[in-house]
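Below is one such record:
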Amino acid sequence: MQPLQNAGYDRAITVFSPDGRLFQVEYAREAVKRGTTSIGVKCPDGIVLAVDKRTTSTLVESSSIEKLFKIDEHIGAATSGLVADARALVERARVEAQINKITYSEPIRVDSLAKKLCDMLQLYTQNGGVRPFGSALIIGGVYNDKCKLFETDPSGALIEYKATAIGSGRSAAMDIFEEQYKDDLSIDEAIALAVTAINDATEHDTTSDNVEIAVIKKDDGKYVKLSKDEVTSYIDDVLGKKESEEEDVGSEESEE
């Protein structure tokens, strides 16, 4: 009987396997992959954050599930993975934003906040007696008329994106972005793209009860969460266009 491939090497976060892997960090990434889908889209006019709030029971109040968070007036975050871990990270991000405002009398830069948060994430991969955070964040915001969108990783790695997704539907959403994303999208087009990605990345029906959307527009730089009626209108538009396209394809095939 051969020994397990990771035998003993996943028992402590500070122990590397012979091939240079930290299994506890990989397990944390797996927790993120099992979470619901969260999406971020950057466009010249601002940032769009959208989340899937999949509920496990009809008895759950969907409004009690938090996946979108306001970090500061000009910064928001979408999370996936362990909800409690995400709340702790968001709280730390809010504290960092306020410390910067008190110290320098100006809002924190989006990239500075993301780096500070990832510095903390990295510390939790390097010290014994702790575990990595089982959550990832998409951090988006506007600073000095520049729109920024970052994705964090449980390892502390940081990547800037034009459009990205985390959670169980990441691969399907990224396929949509690679096909349909354009650098000159308007805010409305970016929201429609985010809704399309969530619709393709999730198995259940896309409705305003299980989808939340927030925008940070470049002109005012303020984080605003869309109302249920606004979300419904965007979902209806996207699904209506999809149905009409499918009908057109079906009629073309029948003619042939």
In short: The beta strands are 38-43, 46-52, 68-72, 75-81, 135-143, 146-152, 158-160, 163-166, 211-217, 223-225. The radius of gyration is 20 Å. The helical segments are 23-33, 83-104, 110-123, 170-180, 187-201, 228-255.
